Amino acid sequence: MLVLLAGIFVVHIATVIMLFVSTIANVWMVDSSNIESVSKGLWLMCNRTCEQLTVSSQDEASLKAVQAFMILSIIFSVIALVMFIVQLFTLEKGKRFYITGAIMLVCWMCILIGVSIYTARFTGKMPAFTNPHHGYCFILAWICFCFSFIISILYLVLRKK
């Protein structure tokens, strides 16, 4: 049981770190041409230098929603990690990890909404570029989506042990 809890704790910390990286770094969409490599994230567009990301007025609300949901997912993931530690040492068996599992499900839902909006509205939309593809931040966000769901289910199953 102790090894299982330690494993879940390590995966949870890894998920928090990957959420930070995927939200902060600006490599959600990448276009590599012979001349230069351009990346676009949630905040900036970078080639040689980084500048404020410009989007059309119809996509601005979508981008703000993606930014908000990714930040909320980080907040809920950190809160769930703190609650895991608190519940581990304060609650008795059978009552542990309900709150942690529920908070991680909320984190999972925030990641799902944020990355789905980005996929629907911004995938392939890099004007004047020929071959845009997803960057590592986009992939990390989807990995965090999977990890947060698995962790939340494990927390809800572990409440009985």
In short:
The chain has 161 residues and is of the alpha+beta class. It contains four helices and five strands.
Walk me through the topology.
Layout: H1 2-24, E1 29-32, E2 37-40, E3 44-46, E4 50-52, H2 57-90, H3 98-122, E5 132-134, H4 136-158
Antiparallel strand pairs: 1-2, 1-5, 2-3, 3-4
Q: Could you characterize what this model shows?
A:
By secondary structure, this protein is α+β, with helices and mostly antiparallel strands. It has one domain (1-28, 57-127, 137-160). Helix content is 65%, strand content 11%. It is built from 4 helices and 5 strands; from the N terminus they run αββββααβα. It has helices at 2-24, 57-90, 98-122, 136-158; strands spanning 29-32, 37-40, 44-46, 50-52, 132-134. A hairpin with a 3-residue loop joins strand 2 (37-40) and strand 3 (44-46). Helix 1 (2-24) packs antiparallel against helix 4 and helix 3 packs antiparallel against helix 4. The N and C termini lie close together (8 Å). Belongs to the PMP-22/EMP/MP20 family. It is a multi-pass membrane protein. The chain crosses the membrane at residues 7-29, 65-85, 97-118, 138-158.
